[in-house]
């Protein structure tokens, strides 16, 4: 998306309208005030962009406040601003300051503040897109986020930390080693490295789902040959055990992760296969065959699971549909094909990698998904999506909420208009008084 928010045609039109009013008698100071106002005032969309940037500036200042609730509110406002627009000029000037304050929140804030700050960091990287900024965000954030992940506190906080880590690695991970390191950090949340006096804490279904989903999201970016087999052997066996868990979201996340591993074509790396002598190779082949058979039977059963009285029909149908797709892929090699409409354009997925990326991005962005898909050039590259061109008239259209902000007597722009008109009236009175005095002198 272009960084400039000012349309020259709109400015010239407004300037022409103002300059047509009594041009012969306007003094230079009046012209200066008027040109300043024209430079600030543009189309409704431009003015709203300025309003949103001022909100971001105020919210950034509020992150320095001592009261935690003030910082939490500021982070909520920043998330809303990033969801409703892509503030590239703000990021260009102040991304480092915003990142620094968010990392302070991750280190010292409440669980709610940590969750919000993690989401902002993810949005910051996603909006900045590929380049030095995203790489710096990843480099500076990995250690604070990994330390926060080890705190083992509320599920919501850990889920947000995992999402934030997934997003900054997805955008800023320039080397496979960087991405794989983040995948390891995620995996350690459910498989911690235990010291002599450390007791393993059983993760909740919500945390297991968040870990597997974030791990799969990053796996979509990795080529199988770049992965270290020592790190991931036996991971397929673990994912297979998750298919037997009671929680439906855990089953679905594990099933999609397994489908992705099969799609990558490196099952051996994920279930303990190794290169050695002939005897070892034969044992490995037998082991892999048994793993395949077990997973296929699990997937087949889940695709046809019968419901019970306490089972929500929607959840059951979602599971059945997902595992029918996985079963068809494992048996016949056909990944599910999907298509969604975005602003008149169509976004299609043809592989498990694309589907997992799309679903994860939708969950992370929430209400900001459509806006980012229309204007975020990084996402256009990721999904090979070309948004339908907007006409000039549509660019200046604003939502109902934005219109109320624009028309509010308390908005910055309304106050600017009031100040401008007051100055105009004062100068008009002074001008008329000067004309009257001149006429009396002539007489």
Automatic annotation (TrEMBL):
SUPFAM superfamilies: ARM repeat. Gene3D superfamilies: Leucine-rich Repeat Variant. Residues 376-428 form the Interferon-related developmental regulator C-terminal domain. It comes from the Eukaryota. Signal peptide: none annotated. Residues 422-443 are annotated as: Disordered. It holds the Pfam family IFRD. Residues 25-331 form the Interferon-related developmental regulator N-terminal domain. InterPro entries: ARM-like (IPR011989), ARM-type_fold (IPR016024), IFRD (IPR039777), Interferon-rel_develop_reg_C (IPR006921), Interferon-rel_develop_reg_N (IPR007701). Belongs to the IFRD family. This is Interferon-related developmental regulator family protein / IFRD protein family.
